[in-house]
Amino acid sequence: MSGPTPRVRPGLVSDALALRAIRLEALADTPDAFGETYEECAGWTDEQWALKARAWNFYLAEIDGRVVGMARGESHDGRPDTRWLFAMYVAPEARGGETARLLVDMVSAWAASQGVDALYLYVATAVPRAHAFYAKVGFVETGPTLTMHRDESLVCQEMRRDLTDFIFHVHRVEPAILYELRRRVLRGDNPLADVTNPGDNLETSLHYGGFIGERAVVSASFYEVPAPFAPDAPAYQLRYMATDYDVQGQGLGSRLLAQVLDDLRRRGATRVWANARTSAIDFYIATGWSVLENSLFVSAETEIDHVVIHYDLDRKPTPH
Ligand SMILES: CC(C)(COP(=O)(O)OP(=O)(O)OC[C@H]1O[C@@H](n2cnc3c(N)ncnc32)[C@H](O)[C@@H]1OP(=O)(O)O)[C@@H](O)C(=O)NCCC(=O)NCCS
């Protein structure tokens, strides 16, 4: 299928009516795929749908602003340590494209962020297209089956997807691994921008990447440079802190910093400081940094407003 690219996003409480519409469409379209029935859910009031929109961890797929799919990511009453994909549905006009995979990937990323290494689901043998789709995106049958409460002739197979490709992990890297991210996020993807730093290959410089699977999505580099306001304290200057556009706002930058600041403390540093873009101040303050008073200046390199920020490693523990 070609055409406009689907967009997948977490559902909001304000999406209650859209949730009702797509869920009822799913139950009417493929009754054998789901534990609930159309009749049951069609009777729910607006207030009940508002409660569902608040309680469910759901995701919507849209094409040109129209909702064409949904999925839920939840834990399992009987198996609280596992995470599950439920209520997966793509409208007929959006099948055979990227919509279903994008929904499953977003639920997989959520599950990985919950600290599990697999996503589970039940799929009814009555919907072979769904089974074929799940197999295509890496779900494998685990063996156990169950029957639906409302109709014992409907058998469901349990499937499991390995989440290695979605798990966020942080480790030290060679600086060149991070150049692409520096260029894309911090230099407006300018192919001519110089994203190297003269200090990159010094033995004292430390470069960290935050990875989802093998893809670097967060970068941060630390150079052994004293803070201008405390020249005698052992310190690192943070530069090139960047999170890739599509995964911003998910807490990955904070997770990287929490881990790295612990590492720097263990290495004997007492201060970390940076010239931070004013647009990023909220992020730094939320993760425990302070802004140096009267430090506003315009960077000669990027012509963007900056302030000096600092994190005192010997004063308080890193927030996790
Ligand atoms: C399940 C669902 C989300 C999958 O999304 P999709 O966009 O249809 O998935 P795709 O088209 O990418 O993949 C389906 C695969 O099944 C194949 N297929 C189609 N009809 C099939 C059938 N009757 N039997 C077996 N395979 C079938 C397709 O050829 C495709 O494989 P291919 O890409 O290798 O050719 C969507 O079909 C849907 O919403 N179905 C109704 C609700 C449902 O069943 N939900 C599942 C609840 S567990």
Mean pLDDT: 94
Order of helix and strand elements from N to C terminus? EHHHEEEHEHEEEHEEEHEHEEE
**Which of globular, elongated, flat, extended, rod-shaped describes the shape?**
elongated
By CATH, the architecture of the largest domain is named: 3-Layer(aba) Sandwich
Structural class: alpha+beta
Q: What is the domain total for the residues?
A: 2
Largest sheet: 8 strands, mixed
The CATH homologous superfamily name of the largest domain equals Gcn5-related N-acetyltransferase (GNAT)
Q: Point out poorly predicted stretches.
A: none
In this entry the ligands are: coenzyme A
Rg calc? 24 Å
CATH topology description of the largest domain: Aminopeptidase
Helix content: 25-40%
Treating each run of at least 4 consecutive H or I residues as one helix, how many helices?
Answer: 8
CATH class call of the largest domain: Alpha Beta
What's the total number of strands? 15
First-residue to last-residue Cα separation: 43 Å
Beta fraction: 25-35%
Give an overview in words:
With about 325 residues, this protein is an alpha+beta fold. The chain has two domains: about 5-165, Aminopeptidase, CATH 3.40.630.30; about 165-310, Aminopeptidase, CATH 3.40.630. It has helices at about 15-30, 40, 45-55, 100-115, 130-135, 180-185, 250-265, 280-285, and strands at about 5-10, 60-65, 65-75, 80-90, 120-125, 140-150, 150-160, 170, 205-210, 215-225, 235-245, 270-275, 290, 295-300, 305-310. The strands form two sheets. Strands 8, 9, 10, 11, 12, 13, 14 and 15 form an eight-stranded mixed beta sheet that branches. Coenzyme A binds near residues 26, 128 and 133. Coenzyme A binds near residues 88, 90, 130, 133 and 136.
